[in-house]
Amino acid sequence: MLSAALDYFRAKPVNLPKITILLDHGYHPNTIGNSLELFYPQIMPKIRFQLAPKLTQAEKVAQGKVGFVPVATRWSAIAL
User: How many domains is the chain built from?
Assistant: First the structure.
């Protein structure tokens, strides 16, 4: 899976906007960035990491939900 994602970024033209990758709060953008830097340093100017929004307990209660609630924007890449 990682190699397919790296192939996508290797083929991405440099003049296109950066891709923002939304991460779950279980991931650390700096750790992922440092690891990717070792495998494919040219990728770093093409991407940026951002932690996806996380519902507060009050927001979950207001929506009538409990436990894990998937966030619609999580796990997708968007161009900004």
Answer: 1
Direct distance between the N- and C-terminal alpha carbons of the chain, in angstroms, rounded to an integer: 23
Q: Decide: helix, strand or coil at residue 41.
A: helix
Would you give per-residue pLDDT tens digits along the chain (80 residues)?
566 777 777 776 666 677 888 887 778 888 888 888 888 888 888 888 888 778 888 988 898 888 877 766 654 444 44
Residue 68 lies in domain: 2-79
Beta bridge partners of 20: 48, 78
What is the C-alpha to C-alpha distance for residues 6 and 2, in angstroms, rounded to an integer? 6
